[in-house]
Design brief:
474 residues, alpha/beta, Rossmann fold, two-stranded antiparallel sheet, 11 strands, 41% helix, Peptidase_S33
Length: 474
């Protein structure tokens, strides 16, 4: 694997936060294209966190230096497309600090404060083809090289045997972790994955063929819990169709609420409390219709909060690209193609016809974690970069494979993974298939947690992962 140059540290500011956290805000500079360092640079932002202690006897300079060289645990966020939360808001922080790590929360390139992708920045790259070429630099292989560059920078003065670090990958962060294990295993001490066993040998079409089945199961669970929403959802759908027509209703931010857009809020079904969140939205919209015969601004704003692609456009643009694990593959809006062939999702082809044909006593079916072409029509930020998104969807000339199955098969890095049987986002069967490819992996399989357990049931899942590491079965 080609060598990576160390990142250049360009800013470091330290603060003490409530909860006795010593947080250092870091900005780095890395090549935009690691294969062509002369092509310009990007900025990466991260926060390094360790315990802030006030001992009775002040620490010596050497003791302070030792504190600064604690082994790193690097948290890899899900997405793709989301920056990190504040360290004091993250459950991983206290668990890791109590076990002797310092934690690094590094925003991936294009997210958070790391040269974020937005429509204005992307349009500045040139025409749609230039924009698509730029977006290709934001995949997991580039993220891993960024991580390596930052590791080399931060551990430059560490003892040689202390320069490797641990990684903790949630969801897409697990995908990144498997790429890291494939390309730079010598840099890793251990890896923890939660809901992130990527389908390393499967295409986007195969992924969606599996996940649509779980989406249908979650719809059944939703209507069992809230049977009154069979009527409420239809009432909302009929109003959107009658009042908005094919163009939909205008949203406060300038986007459009169409029937298709409404039925895509099922993305929440994969989270703890997701059924309840969708019901709360449906209840608010239905109450508006009952009282006012229209949707109020508050209700429309509540809907917008469920579809956040405008504030995280990289998520929508690159979501299917994460499954193009080898050159030659194109996603071509796989979720749209797979879903429209399923009876429950005929609304992807013709929403009005679907609504008219569906009996009134039968529930309308929501989609899950899928990005469809209509999102690039109805979300104003996405509409500005739709041409680039279409080019990217048809792209097959990816620069390299994301995973090295042979390397995973001879892996020597300890890997501990939580895999969720009822995961709506990462299919359990495909995750188990991947686990079988990783030598030495230990996997916690459970049907009592959903995909976001690291946030919603953090003590439970993080505790069990560390028990996998600490407990020996022999």
């Amino acid at each position: 694997m080609a060598a990576v140059r160390a990142a250049r540290l360009i800013s470091r500011k330290a603060h003490v936060l409530p909860g006795q956290l010593h947080v250092t805000e870091l900005f780095f500079e890395v090549p935009k294209n690691h294969a062509r360092p002369e092509a310009g640079t990007l900025k990466l932002f991260g926060r390094s966190v360790r315990k802030h202690e006030r001992p009775i006897v002040p620490l010596s300079a050497s003791e302070l230096a030792k504190k600064e060289k604690l082994p790193y645990l690097v948290y890899l966020e899900g997405g793709p497309g989301f920056g990190n939360r504040q360290p004091q808001q993250h459950a991983v922080t206290q668990t890791a600090l109590s076990r002797g790590y310092q934690v690094l929360y590094l925003d991936y390139r294009g997210t958070g404060l790391s040269t974020p992708i937005n429509a204005d920045a992307l349009l500045g790259q040139g025409g749609p083809q230039e924009q698509a070429d730029y977006l290709k630099l934001f995949r997991a292989n580039s993220i891993v090289r960024d991580l390596e560059a930052v590791r080399l920078c931060l551990t430059e003065d560490f003892e040689p045997d202390a320069r490797s670090w641990s990684i903790f990958g949630q969801s897409f962060g697990g995908f990144v972790s498997l790429t890291y294990l494939s390309k730079y295993p010598q840099s890793l001490r251990e890896a923890f994955l939660t809901g992130g066993l990527a389908p390393v040998k499967r295409t986007a079409d195969e992924v969606y063929s599996a996940t649509f089945k779980k989406v249908i199961e979650r719809n059944i669970a939703y209507y069992i819990k809230y049977p009154e929403d069979v009527r409420n959802v239809r009432q909302i759908a009929e109003h959107i169709t009658a009042a908005g027509g094919t163009e939909g209703l205008r949203l406060p931010s300038g986007g459009r609420l169409t029937l298709q857009q409404f039925l895509s809020v099922g993305i929440a079904f994969g989270r703890h409390g997701g059924l309840d969140d969708v019901h709360a939205l449906v209840l608010q919209l239905a109450a508006d219709l009952d009282q006012f015969r229209l949707f109020t601004r508050n209700a429309l704003a509540a809907f917008e909060s469920h579809i956040s692609f405008d504030t995280h456009p990289i998520y929508a643009v690159l979501h299917e690209a994460i499954y193009n694990h080898t050159p030659g593959l194109a996603s071509n809006f796989a979720a749209q193609r797979v879903g429209r062939d399923l009876r429950s999702f005929q609304w992807l082809s013709d929403a009005a016809a679907y609504l008219a044909a569906q009996p009134h006593d039968q529930p309308l079916v929501f989609s899950g974690e899928m990005v469809f072409p209509f999102h690039f029509d109805n979300c104003p930020e996405l509409a500005r970069i739709a041409a680039a998104a279409r080019i990217l969807a048809a792209t097959t000339d990816w620069d390299e494979e994301l995973y090295d199955v042979d390397q995973l098969g001879r892996n020597e890095v300890p890997v501990y993974a939580a895999s969720y049987i009822d995961d709506m986002y990462v299919d359990f069967g495909l995750a188990r298939e991947t686990a079988a490819l990783v030598k030495g992996i230990k996997v916690l399989e459970t049907n009592s947690l959903y995909h976001d357990a690291v946030r919603s049931r953090s003590d439970e899942v993080i505790g069990q992962l560390f028990r996998l590491r600490d407990d020996s079965i022999d």
